[in-house]
Amino acid sequence: MTMNQAQNRREVLARWRWAVPVVSTAVLYTIAYFTCWAAFGIKIEKGEMFSPELVNDPNFVQGGNITPRGITELKTRMPYANVALLEADPQLDNMAKLFTVDMITNFVQAKLAAKGE
Q: How far apart are CA 8 and CA 50, in angstroms?
C-alpha cells in the first residue's frame, strides 16, 4: 500500500458514520462507553457524550427538526462533534450522523487531555 492510499483510507475511515436511526444511539453509546473504559480507563458520565433529553425538549426540537437554539446547545454540549452537519440539514433523523469515528476520537482525546495523558 502506498502512502497516498493509506492517507485516503484514513480520511474515509475518519468520516465513516454509523447508518442507524437516533433510537439506536443508545446501542452506539453503550459500545463507545465500554470501549473507552476498557481501552483508555475513561469513564463517561451520563449525558457526557450525548444528551438524549435534548430530543424531547421543545426548545431544541420542533416538527422533527432541530431548532437554531438546539444547534447552539449541541455545539456547547458536544464540542467534539461536527454539528455543522445539522446546521446544513437540521432534521432530527440526521442526529445519528454526528456519531463518526472522528467524533469518538475527538471525545477520547479531550478526555485523555483532561486526565493529563
A: 29
DSSP 44: P
Return the SS3 of 55.
helix
What is the reported pTM?
0.68
Task: Measure the CA–CA gap between 17 and 79, rounded to whole angstroms.
Answer: 17
Q: Could you give the 3-state DSSP secondary structure of residue 91? A: strand
CA distances in angstroms from 95 to 1, 30, 49, 79, 87, listed in the order given: 35, 17, 13, 14, 11
Give percent helix, percent strand, percent coil of the chain, each to the nearest 5. Answer: 65, 5, 30
Interval 79-97: pLDDT, tens: 999 999 899 999 998 888 8
